[in-house]
């Protein structure tokens, strides 16, 4: 159930916007938004869920607190401020969708775990919809046939996060390339990499710094999973020369991601030389060795079955 709702509209990638207004929701509108909130808040339960932290100078934490416990006027002020912040960062991002409906929502204070949620709901808004807004104000049912179904939302945040203090708020962002950081930047948030990105970069760093055979042994220390910086600390007890340089695993300026239990066991990496590609699971790095032969290199692979048909004995 939604206690308070403010809806706004951002058009032409932030160039134009319609400031939020407080909405009294119909039962159907409440159900639609409540399902979005429930889907977003379930996101933290995934093993590889993104973590998000407020930056030191961020005002978002204070704004979300004010939206939850302040007056109706304060709630609307927060909604307007958040929409303007998002529009400003969208203007500098070529990856942002042209139009969206944005919603700031609070759950009743008497709820078991009341939350504050901000949703960005992408939509292809036509002139006819804007005419209806001019005549009747921003109402969810005007756009509802354009909006994503619950579970298909691309971006949203919800506070508080049950994982606190490891994560300040739940964040969903399905487009997480560097060009899409406008959403987290709008609210001054540091966000971790996806688990898959974190795992790939950890393997790459292990191979680069320790070599394939030692990387395979070091990766075994990550088998139980956990926060990447804690796994790096464990690896350093055996391999003190290993350093976290990638942001996703605790390098400078980054919020460490998560490595899922057992995720590295079947992780494969591609090695290339002279147009030849060799794709190896991490656990089998030790079956390959390379030695110098004059100006060339000879790579040997030890297997229990032939990789190629056996050469004729008289060749």
Which key features would you list for this structure?
315 residues; alpha+beta; six-stranded antiparallel sheet; 9 helices; 14 strands
- Any idea what the radius of gyration is? 25 Å
Helix content: 25-40%
**Rough outline:** elongated
Order of adjacent strands in the largest pleated sheet: 2-1-4-5-6-7
What topology does this entry show?
Blueprint lengths: L3 E8 L4 E8 L3 H16 L9 E3 L5 H10 L2 H19 L9 E7 L9 E7 L4 H10 L3 H4 L11 E5 L10 E4 L8 H5 L2 E3 L3 H16 L1 H8 L6 E2 H11 L19 E2 L8 E6 L2 E6 L6 E6 L2 E6 L14
Antiparallel strand pairs: 1-2, 1-4, 3-8, 4-5, 5-6, 6-7, 9-10, 11-12, 13-14
Structure description:
It is a single chain. This protein is an alpha+beta fold and 315 residues long. The protein folds into 2 domains: 4-191, no CATH class; 195-259, no CATH class. It has 9 helices and 14 strands. The chain has helices spanning 27-42, 60-69, 72-90, 127-136, 140-143, 182-186, 195-210, 212-219, 228-238; strands at residues 4-11, 16-23, 52-54, 100-106, 116-122, 155-159, 170-173, 189-191, 226-227, 258-259, 268-273, 276-281, 288-293, 296-301. Strands 2-1-4-5-6-7 form a 6-stranded antiparallel β-sheet, sandwiched between helices. The protein has a two-stranded antiparallel sheet with strand order 3-8. Strands 9-10 form a two-stranded antiparallel ribbon. A hairpin with a 2-residue loop joins strand 13 (288-293) and strand 14. The relative contact order is 0.13.
């Amino acid at each position: 159930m939604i206690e308070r709702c403010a809806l706004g509209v951002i058009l032409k990638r932030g160039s134009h916007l319609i400031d939020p207004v407080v909405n009294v929701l119909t039962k159907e509108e409440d159900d639609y938004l409540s399902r979005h909130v429930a889907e977003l808040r379930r996101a933290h339960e995934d093993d590889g869920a993104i973590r998000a932290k407020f930056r030191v100078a961020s005002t978002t934490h204070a704004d979300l607190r004010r939206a939850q416990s302040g007056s109706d006027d304060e709630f609307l002020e927060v909604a307007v401020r958040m929409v303007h912040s998002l529009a400003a960062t969208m203007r500098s991002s070529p990856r942002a969708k042209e139009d969206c409906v944005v919603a700031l929502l609070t759950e009743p204070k008497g709820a078991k775990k009341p939350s504050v949620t901000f949703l960005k709901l992408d939509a292809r808004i036509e002139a006819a919809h804007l005419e209806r807004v001019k005549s009747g104000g921003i109402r969810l049912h005007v756009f509802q046939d354009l909006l994503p179904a619950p579970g298909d939302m691309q971006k949203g945040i919800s506070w508080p996060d049950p994982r606190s203090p490891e994560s300040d708020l739940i964040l969903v962002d399905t487009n997480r390339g560097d060009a899409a950081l406008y959403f987290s930047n709008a609210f001054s948030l540091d966000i971790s990499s996806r688990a898959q990105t974190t795992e790939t970069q950890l393997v790459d760093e292990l191979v680069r710094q320790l070599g394939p055979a030692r990387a395979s042994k070091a990766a075994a220390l990550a088998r139980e999973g956990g926060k990447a910086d804690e796994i790096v600390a464990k690896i350093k007890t055996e391999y003190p020369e290993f350093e976290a340089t990638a942001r996703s695993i605790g390098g400078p300026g980054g919020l460490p991601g998560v490595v899922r239990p057992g995720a590295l066991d079947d992780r494969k990496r591609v090695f290339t030389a002279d147009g030849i590609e060799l794709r190896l699971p991490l656990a089998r790095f030790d079956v390959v060795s390379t030695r110098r032969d004059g100006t060339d290199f000879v790579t040997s692979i030890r297997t229990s079955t032939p990789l190629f048909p056996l050469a004729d004995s008289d060749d």
